[in-house]
Amino acid sequence: MEKLINIEYDFRTDSNGGDVDKYSSTLRKYHKILWSKPLPNGNNFSLDDSKDNVYLYYKTESQEYFLSSDSIVHTYSKWKRTENIINQVPKNEINDFLNIAYTIGGYIIFPSNKVNNLPTINMERGTNQKIDDRFDLTLECIRRYYNGEKSPLAETLERYDDFFKLFIDFKGYCDFFLLQDLTLDNYKKIKYFLPFNDFEIGQYPKNIEDYFIYKNNSIEFNKNRNKRIENYIKNIL
Predict the structure, then answer these.
(1) In this structure, what DSSP letter does residue 105 have?
(2) pTM of the shown model
(3) What's the DSSP call for residue 77?
(4) CA–CA distance, 143 with 171 (Å, rounded to integer)
(5) DSSP 169
(6) How far is Cα 76 from Cα 123, in angstroms, rounded to an integer?
(7) How many whole angstroms separate alpha carbon 63 and alpha carbon 42?
(8) What angle do CA 100, 79, 195 make, to 5 degrees?
(9) How far apart are CA 74 and CA 60, in angstroms?
(10) pLDDT the model gives residue 1
């Protein structure tokens, strides 16, 4: 019998060489299966994938939510700024990193609609040099948002306040999206991929030593989240 979700499936397989967040129908299906479930606020997060030109959609009596997929495990293997570092890493290790990054543990959904024509969460976390597309730092910003603290993404997250309210608090958000392995001390801290430097500009790995630390921690998180996803699916069958 075919698995409901195969945690080893590489979404490049059915994206025809394009952006897997947009073109992999399997990834879209997996997102719908995983996240269509009861919310911490008691409502059911029933995701709709039938609307034209909308990745996933959720509607309540008072709000509607347009959602898209986003990669949360960045290999930096195609960045110009990290090219000199990547050239020092054996190709098989980069390929192994990419192979795990393209599995379901490396993806999440965020609101995709622009508010007042300003950047979405996906866009801002990818271009903000105090984040540099690192999900551990994105999650730190989300943790601070729930606590009413400032961060480089505070204004962006504020635009999607209704979305984050669906999960009540930071624990509710992490439990819902199976992100527990990136938290410490009962959700009070983040388990960073690199030592935290208080959001200094330039958050990508700067040398080969840092890259291996970042890579190994990212892979560990992705594998652990894949296991959580697999166990979750077993429990709902």
Answers:
(1) G
(2) 0.96
(3) T
(4) 9
(5) S
(6) 16
(7) 16
(8) 70
(9) 33
(10) 39
What's the Rg (C-alpha) of the chain? 17
Residue type, 176: F
Contact 33, 39 (CB under 8 A): no
The parts of the chain modelled with pLDDT lower than 70 are 1-2
pLDDT on residue 237 = 72
CA 216 to chain centre: 17
Exposure b/e, 97-128, CB count within 10 A at least 16 = b: bbebbbbbbbbbbbbbeeeeeebbbbebbbeb
Residue 171: both structure tokens together: 């624990």
Ramachandran category for residue 79: left, alpha or beta (phi over 0 → left; psi -120 to 50 → alpha)? beta
Cβ 37 vs Cβ 73: under 8 Å: no
Pairing, β 64-71 against β 189-190: unpaired
pLDDT at 214: 98
